[in-house]
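Fig. S4 source data, part A: sequence.
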Amino acid sequence: MERLDDDELNRWLHEDAPFGDLTTRSLGIGARAGQLRIHARGVMRVAAIEEAARLFELCGATAHVELPSGRDAGPGEVLLRARGQAGSLIEAWKVAQTTVEAASGLATEAAHILRPLRAAGFGLALACTRKNWPGGRGLAARAVWAGGAVMHRLGLSETLLVFPEHRRFIDPADLPAALTALRQGQPEKRLVVETADADEAVALARLGVDVIQLERFTPEALAALRERLLTLNLRPMLAPAGGVTADNALAYARAGADLLVSSAPYFAPPKDVLVVIEPVA
């Protein structure tokens, strides 16, 4: 996945230093030569390190990625090196550090959820929701990718997902016609409908829904629904959502889930990194 574009990164830099770095300028050290390293403090899945490198470059320094996004790092391992004037290094420093820490926390949790699934031989996808911080969709997508997961939805404009909130505006008797019209109007899109009720899930399967998103179903309830659908010769994809975490992901896979929908990686703590900045003689 390509890194975020320069316009986005420049917005981050401008937000942090709209009129330059007052401290560095006032100290008169901005032109001194320096070097910088970013180290992992602990085990982590690296994410957005390419964005960090570009942030230093946009401030006038040179940067080299030592360990790319999507790779696992151990304690003390160097992720990035940069060289340039002290002013350039210090201006990009905190923006780059925070970017890597936040994205790597998300990526590490996604990888943590997937690891036992892959070890047990399950290849189903972990799809991360759009519950990222507003304005952070691009960085969230980069972190999700680095963690080995996929984005459930990049936005409302690209997918058909009918929530109960949508259906409250439709008479139940009109729902079959509404779903048919939705499919005919967007024939290239999969039709996904969310429900928290097993009977409604069966009814939706009878209507030909491609993916049924199961809100707050337990693994046991999902397994029972899967058996019920199979007896009716119905085979929609089943996607548990709401409460899917590293603690229960394997249970959902064993219950017959076709993919997992989770927001859990967004709430993982950032992964701490150590930044060392020093002068060059």
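Fig. S4 source data, part B ends here. The longest helix spans residues 86-119.
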